[in-house]
Amino acid sequence: MRKPPFHKSFLNAFRGIFMMVKSERNFQLELAAFAVNLFLIFYLNLSILDSVLILMVSSGVLAAEIFNTAIEKICDIIQPEFDVRIGLIKDIAAGAVLLMAFISVVTGVLVYWKYLFI
Ligand SMILES: Nc1ncnc2c1ncn2[C@@H]1O[C@H](COP(=O)(O)OP(=O)(O)OP(=O)(O)O)[C@@H](O)[C@H]1O
């Protein structure tokens, strides 16, 4: 198969993100959290380093959710029926999102703490 031109690959990737925004409730919530973080970065005037930390962990959650959804969709194509192995694969993928979300909450508390209470 011929490789699509660069701008086409870009559009395809955007279509993937748009699909996530339109149809994945968890992604919508995580995107809202990302927007709140953007607001807090400016409102609390975070340092560059703290801003980068917050941006990295909150976008990490979004990326993990995208991979999780992609894995779920592959699983549903390969095996639409109940299958313990598919359940385990989906649980593992969901675990990556949970782990990333946990790390981002801990990072958020550690970073915002000094701007709010110190
Ligand atoms: N085909 C299957 N066979 C066995 N268990 C499954 C199967 N499909 C889903 N499950 C179980 O149901 C859970 C939820 O799967 P589902 O595909 O509904 O994802 P979801 O509700 O969109 O989850 P998420 O919140 O992680 O996006 C899985 O983590 C898994 O434990």
From TrEMBL:
Chain residues that bind a divalent metal cation: E24, E72
Keyword Magnesium: yes
Cofactor(s) required for function per UniProt: Mg(2+)
Domain of life from the UniProt record: Bacteria
Primary localization class, coarse: membrane
Gene Ontology molecular function, alphabetical: ATP binding; kinase activity; metal ion binding
UniProt EC number: 2.7.1.-
Record membrane topology: Multi-pass membrane protein
Family per record: Belongs to the bacterial diacylglycerol kinase family.
Protein name: Diacylglycerol kinase family protein
